[in-house]
Amino acid sequence: MKKWLLLLTSAGLQTLPTFLPTSLSTATLQAQTLNQTDDGFRGIWYHIGKLDNEYVHKYSGGLGTYPANHSPFSVYRPEVKKTFFCFGGASKDAKPSLLHEISYFDHTTRQVARPTIVLNKATDDAHDNPVLNIDAQGYLWVFSTSHGVERPSYTHRSRKPYDISAFDKIEATYFKNGKQLPFDNFSYLQSFYQKGKGFFHLMTHYERGILKYGAKKPRRTIGYITSKDGIQWSDIKDIGTIEEGHYQTGGQWNNKISTAFNMHPDTEKGAGLDYRTNLYYVETNDFGQSWQNAQGEKLTLPLSTPQNGGLVKEYRSLGLNVYINDLTYDAKGRPIILFVTSKGPDPGPSQGPHTWQVAFFNGKTWEINPVTTSDHNYDMGSLYVENSTTWKIIGPTEAGPQPYGTGGEVAVWISKNQGKKWQKQTNLTPKSAFNHSYVRRPLNVHPDFYAFWADGHARQPSESSLYFSTKKGEVFRLPRQMKNEFEKPIRVNP
Fold first, then answer.
1. DSSP β-ladder status, 167-169 and 154-158
2. pLDDT of residue 29
3. φ, ψ for residue 116 (rounded to 5)?
4. Could you write out the three-class secondary structure of 299-365?
5. For the purposes of burial, counting CB atoms within 10 Å of the CB of 365, is it exposed (0-12), middle (13-18) or buried (19 or more)?
């Protein structure tokens, strides 16, 4: 088998036949394009940060829709009345490998299609989860991210519009220092598409040898890159180069593309990626040609100092970490940022409270108001603007069966006054066996596929299922085992 795979690779063939089992070892498979039909929906379980206490890991669980800095995971297209979605799937190995899978929910039949395994990423790292987008012609694009520079990234495009059956690997290139190079490394990707202009990607790249207190560590530099066709890309242009770098979360409203981000301090103590603070916001209305803050003041990128025109609120002096969940807009295109603050990176009550907050630019200033508290830094949800006054948050704000672990029980919170006051409307997942985490809002969201997430044990390896909810609050689990090509999701709440 190894010899046969080697011959395929050397011959330049990117697609393996569908009879190869998903349990083929990652050491043999080596991140191959598969185009296999899977027999159900199994999410990846992942952990990071081993601890010597009852919380076991810094964070862990069913992370098939992780992280907050990846989007979109799902896209609704009215042309075919389908919501297409991707996720980090799990192979059937004893030690599961991360599979990049894609399926869709048919709003006419109310069924899901058996997922297609586009790629075996040859890792179990959920940071490598895929991102999905759809171009103007209906071709599906799966962008397979990396976690740093240890593994390559991949780009795949469907062979037919709105068809998940087969994908081709795209040999994408970009420009660096005037040279055209393979575009095969990108992390923390947020993909946007504008008809007539093409793709606009927010992403992260890594630079070494420039930090004062961590010369051997990379700076997590955030930037953007564009492409008309998804094949030939521009150079990477930096957005933020403050101290040890950033995490960013982007959004789009009409022609406006924005990013909200924090910063990592570069200091002798309290430094590193676990320490993320401050809240920033910048936007472009012309596909990256110029940038401004929410007030409309022109900015010169990259922002390189903690105090700059993109600063929304300074949290560093308060000793607070900032975890950005979501960025969206009201009907006038004014930005709204959902984020969580805490006193540090460690799980458990000692560095709480973990306060969910909403920052809203009202046209003149930023208003920041609390929503609720939860029990973990990586409790991630999404924000929905339903009309001029009613905003909704869907996320794991409630303690789950593994308290002080990643995620929890999913609840719905409502504000009737543009985020000033919030009230819990309902619990969507009562009495769960596992914690639910990383609740994601689809692009062009449809009421019948309104939020998308996964579950998993927050202390130890477990199976992980995928879920979605309707706008009305109905919760469905995607079938872990399918006998037919199409099946209806399973209703799990009353």
1. antiparallel
2. 47
3. -100, 130
4. ECCCECCCCCCCEEECCHHHCCEEEEEEEEECCCCCEEEEEEEECCCCCCHHHCCEEEEEEEECCCC
5. exposed
DSSP strand pairing (277-284 vs 256-263): antiparallel
Cα separation, 448 vs 107, whole angstroms:
7
Q: Is 413 helix (H, G, I), strand (E, B) or coil?
A: strand
Dihedral angle sign, alpha carbons of residues 446, 394, 343, 315: positive
CB 106 within 8 A of CB 148: no
- How far apart, in whole angstroms, are the C-alpha atoms of residue 119 and residue 132? 13
The kind and range of the H/E element at 8 are helix 2-10
For 469, the token pair is 């909810």
Q: Is the pTM of this model over 0.90?
A: yes
Residues 138 and 155 sit within 8 Å (Cβ to Cβ): no
Q: Rounded to an integer, what distance in angstroms lies between the CA atom of residue 173 and that of residue 14? A: 17
Report which of 359, 376, 356 is spatially closest to residue 367, judged by C-alpha positions: 359
338: β partners? 326, 358
DSSP notation for 181-228: EE----EEEEEEEETTTEEEEEEEEEE-S--SS-TTSPEEEEEEEEES
Mean pLDDT by 10 residues, the chain (494 residues): 33 34 42 94 96 96 98 98 98 96 98 98 97 98 95 97 98 97 98 98 93 82 98 98 97 98 89 90 98 98 98 97 98 98 96 98 98 98 94 98 98 97 97 98 98 98 98 98 98 90
Is CATH 3.40.1350 the classification given to domain 2-17+27-382+400-410+432-491? no
Q: Is 219 exposed, middle or buried (0-12, 13-18, 19+ CB in 10 A)?
A: buried
